[in-house]
Amino acid sequence: SGMTAVVGMIDASEQVPTFGAREKDVRAFVCGGWESLGLYHALGALTAGSSLPAISTEHFLDQVLPQASTTDLVVLLHSHEGGPPLTHEDMPREIGRLKGKVGFQLAVVEVRPAPLAGSPGDGTPQMMEQSMARLLANADCKVTITLPDQASQVVLPGIDAFGEFAMKLTLNLLTTGAYVRLGKVYRSRMIDMRVTNIKLYRRACTIVAEVTGLNFEHATECIIRSIYDVDVPKPLPKNLIELPVEDHLVRARQVPRLVPTAILIATGKYTLATARRDLREGTPIRDLVVAAMS
User: Fold this and answer.
1) Distance between CA 185 and CA 213 in Å, rounded?
2) How far apart are CA 51 and CA 195, in angstroms?
């Protein structure tokens, strides 16, 4: 709950453009849903028929978690600033029951506050109800961050800046680490990012250039070829090269695996057809890039 929920939702939302993730690969759920974030009415969701995605823990327990598998990871976020991570006693009990039945993995990330300046603090975590304590005891992985005394200083009134930053860094380790293992990172570059705005378009061209050693102009041409299906060695029409970036983006947003396709054809060992064929076959993108660069 609280800002912990917001940090979790931001991290989940970043995975689609950053790593080309599917929308349901990484999802965030919050006790109380949109109302608890103070966004329900602000977003115009005034009726039960709203098109907003369901983000409540009730929906998660009823509709999502029963469909989980042994390859899924559930991460429970807990910051003492935000209060208990689950607000109803039957929630941790239900998660524990489904964990035993379905077999998903459970991780707990907890940020403990530093003692307030001038006040005693023994570092003892806040007491949790028995059902929650039993659930935490059965977690497969626990990450506990205890903030130092200096973190008790107020940076912004009403905001636990250090606690939020610690939670964000920990979530980055989890999600980025997962996509590194899935082969979506090559030499610290995100090679399956989505191109949805001008900044990401420029970044995509830069990544193609840095990975392959081409200059920026030629790397950009590989991106444009991948957008408009102009295969090598066919010349790239001048009118496409001269189009504004905004025009490229209209089509680029609809092209799957745009950046890895451009990287592969930039190596000179692939055509658009062979690049897309190999990408469809499911070989990790990093493995394809390593082989093409060798």
Assistant:
1) 17
2) 25
